[in-house]
Amino acid sequence: MSQPLHERLQPYPTEKLQALAAQTPLRTSLPPISFSWGEPQHATPHLVVQALAEHAGGIGRYPKVAGSDALREAIAAWIARRHGVAGLDPAREIVPVNGAKDALFSLAQVVLRANRPRHGAPVVLVSNPGYQVYEGAALLAGAEPYYLDIDPAQGLAAAFDAVPAHIWPRVRLAYLCSPDNPSGHVYALPDWEHALALAERHGFHIVSDECYSELYFDEGAPPLGVLAAAQALGRDRQRILAVASLSKRSNAPGLRSGFVAGDADVLERLRLYRSYCGGVLSPAVQGASIAAWQDEAHVEENRRLYREKFAFAIPLLQQVARLQQPQAGFFAWLDIRASGLDDVAFTRELLAEQNVAVVPGTFLARTVNGRNPGAGHVRIALVAAAEECAQGVERLVAFARAWQPAAA
Ligand SMILES: Cc1ncc(COP(=O)(O)O)c(C=O)c1O
């Protein structure tokens, strides 16, 4: 705790990877292929771009922090259609935000300031490996991150069970990511039941990061979100905050548009907080967002493109690494320990030999009690066009084959 805050904030994995790449001379003239960042590369739908242009005139006015009625109503209607949760009050239970990142950060600031533990700093549960903003948001709100080592095979309950008893009275917030980055795992109703019961018992809030919720592979099984889980369990929305985004769903990461839905008291404080920090969506962005939330055809097409890429990639990757078909998202999480290389060496050598960039698992996770749960894994984002993804996968497989310990 005595370490200055700026030293506790780690560089983004992007920067760590850039530093690694800068020290890695290429031994190939092959063109670069990037599997490293979760930036969607499929085309932004025309209807979104068109609506953005149509609403450009709106920039002559200051937009409301709460967003337009039309946008909040479009979001409420989407939640009712997609999650079967009707009756959300668009004025009190929905706040449009500048992408999921904005919401994830801001929610920590408002939740943790209003609900301090009696003794010690508040604790925020963050998934490990996980999205780095959870950790940074906790630190910048004066809280301590507690890293949850979540093994999808064991379920969420096992990860919670490992939290020591003396930590629980200080827990004030839990970030849960479903579908998960990087594993693609989706929490089922018993996971949510366990999490919601703990939140009630210990008085903490749950922020459910659902920014990958629309990129699922089984059209018959869309991921269960926290709002629908609460409804199925007969619970109200107190302490529950669902975060969604258009970045991945609608291939519009530059639009900076998403929403938080749930606990009306927290959202009231969030609107107040945002009226100071300037978190507001431009009227043009709001118009484009309405068009995006009202259309599902482009999202179905988006899923089809990912399904095709994963159908090709997974069986090939399974020849050289241990991995499962994710339930959702656009990441594959490869256990590359059989290669005989650690994840950083694997990343470096793959880059040098094949000019393919992936992310070492240890860059996405923290070492706790001498163990980094990202070790021995690399994350690949199948975001590029199908042809480029296919080439990248083939190069990765060729590289890993050459590095099998038996061949060394
Ligand atoms: C788990 C997770 N949450 C949130 C975000 C941020 O998404 P947005 O573009 O909506 O801010 C990302 C982006 O990569 C992510 O991987």
Total domain units? 2
CATH class categorisation of the largest domain: Alpha Beta
Element pattern in H and E:
HHEHHEHEHEHEHEHEHEHHHEHEEEH
Q: How much of the sequence is in beta strands?
A: 5-15%
CATH topology (fold) name of the largest domain: Aspartate Aminotransferase, domain 2
The DSSP helix count reads 15
Ligand types: pyridoxal-5'-phosphate
Helix-strand category: alpha/beta
* Count of DSSP strands: 12
The main sheet comes to: 7 strands, mixed
Can you describe what's shown?
- There is one protein chain.
- This protein is of the alpha/beta class.
- The protein folds into two domains: 5-43 and 298-407, Alpha-Beta Complex (Aspartate Aminotransferase, domain 1), CATH 3.90.1150; 46-295, 3-Layer(aba) Sandwich (Aspartate Aminotransferase, domain 2), CATH 3.40.640.
- Helices cover 41% and strands 13% of the residues.
- The strands form three sheets. Strands 2-8-7-6-5-3-4 form a seven-stranded mixed sheet, with helices on both faces. Strands 9-12-11 form a three-stranded antiparallel sheet.
- Helix 8 (189-202) links the parallel strand 5 and strand 6.
- Helix 5 (99-114) packs parallel to helix 6 (132-140).
- It is globular, with a radius of gyration of 21 Å.
- It binds pyridoxal-5'-phosphate.
- Pyridoxal-5'-phosphate (PLP) binds next to helix 5.
- Pyridoxal-5'-phosphate (PLP) is lined by residues 38, 99-101, 131, 177, 181, 209, 211, 245, 247, 253, 258.
